[in-house]
Amino acid sequence: MKLRTIRILSQTVTFALFITLFFLTLYPFAEYLPVELFLQLDPLVALVAMIAGHALIVTMLWSVIILLATLILGRFFCGYVCPLGSMIDFSDWLLFTHFRKAEDPYPKPRRNIKYFVLTGVVAASLLGANMLHFFSPMSIAPRSIALVIFPPLVWLGNFTLDILRPVFYRIGLDGIAVFSFQQKAFAGSILSLLLFAIVIGGGYWRKRFWCRYVCPTGALLSIISRWAPIKRKVGPSACNNCVKCMLQCDMRAIEEDPRKTVLTECTLCGDCIGSCNKGGVSIGWTWPGPRGSNDKLVVGRRQFVYSAIGGAALATGLKSGMLVPASDDGRFIRPPGAIPEKEFLAQCIRCGECMKVCKTNGLQPALLEAGMDGLWTPCLIPRQGECEEKCNMCGHVCPTQAIRALPLREKQFVKMGTAVIDRHRCIAWEQNKLCLICDEVCPYDAIEFKIIQTHDGSFKRPYVLEDKCTGCGLCEKKCPVDGRAAIEVYSFGEERSKRGSYITDTKIRMRKVTEDHTGSYDARSLGSGGEGRAVHSDRKAPPSADTTKKLPGGFIVDDAKQEALPGGFITDDPARQPLPGGFIVDE
Fold it and tell me: Which fold has domain 231-296?
């Protein structure tokens, strides 16, 4: 089998695996599936994330396999595995085969630009700035698919189902007829589309333009591949200087003398082998080191220093907010399990996997809310979608553990922020109307209603129990007020740590009633006025000398008489007046 055929087959299989894992990144999925595997193979991602975050990221150690393989096989990753490289090859063939600008077959020193990019990225990481989201294939490829390609595909799938629904009903496939995909939409997708268009559009000028001139991952692998024993060989007696192999090489890795190869540029694609009429080109084992090749890295000391200074200066601008300052409105909510902000920005590679897996579409890419340094990082927009109580997928798909992979129970104890009621917009507060939606939907029992005396009478008003609220945003999502919700989540009170448990004895005590499911009343769930949520119970009240207990609003409960009222309350009131909802009896 020809090497070119093997390369195409490898690209097809690896890209199919990449897409399969991408589409498996959805709720729910088995946590043992390595959906983030491809993103953990990039050695530059591992290097920069660890340096910038000042941490050893165990999940990124898979990238060592690529480094070791590169030491033997050369820059094979770019030609056989990289998903962005496969997308570029396909788009070059599909879009630019007949419309590509004429290219000089001889290689140019401009190919060394990628080494300057690599130097700048690494220098920036030393100051805590992670800029891989602009350059790394393992950031650009999944983010482009998640934010740019995936939403239109979902819409197209739903549109097709809408057309075929009558047919499905007619043939009795009612299950398919009522099925639809959840439509995803992401803010700022146009920026991701612009970067993706630049990466793909470079094929108009040069084949694999991005890989040749920009990609810092390719630059890192190029440096290592110089000493690989597997390389291109040319038989001296078989070569007649026809330069067909040079014209066929996408990476321009063949020098003016076609017998010499720039090993740092060669991806072992095999195109040169098929182009040689005399069969004088092969790929095989030679002595380690750049023998028989013109393979000196043309990177001057001055250019190297300039690149490092440029990267450091850009990192300083990003981290200081000099370029774009972060917003201070308190509405920037990170996903549950996100590590502290400084380390989060350093380790997050903006791949978009957490946003893709978010069940409610509440995780959105940040634009400039967190400054330029936070571009494309995930943030929760509760009005778009809440943080689902039964979902912890975002941490399990994060390749760099910028979001911790928390067990579901522990994730439910993470405080992302605190809900705040705007009394001027709240229906219950401003219009004296009964609205219980925020209380009814709260999965953590963090909202209670109290009877408030006003000049117009007694009315029920919602209050947020800050100690119970996790900032999940379901109340904000379901608030019936048009436009901006009357209850919004702010980031104050958020909890973020790199290690340790979020579950504390205090939190467990605060949630005892909702977790018990025994129907018992617990004084620890009550507010200062004795109010709380009514919990039905079949248990008898324990005997006591004084069976009457006062409740707010002047109601008297007498457990001894056992006179039932709607809602499970008992009273000695002759009028058998029902109690307002939201009160409980402490046994």
Answer: Alpha-Beta Plaits (3.30.70)
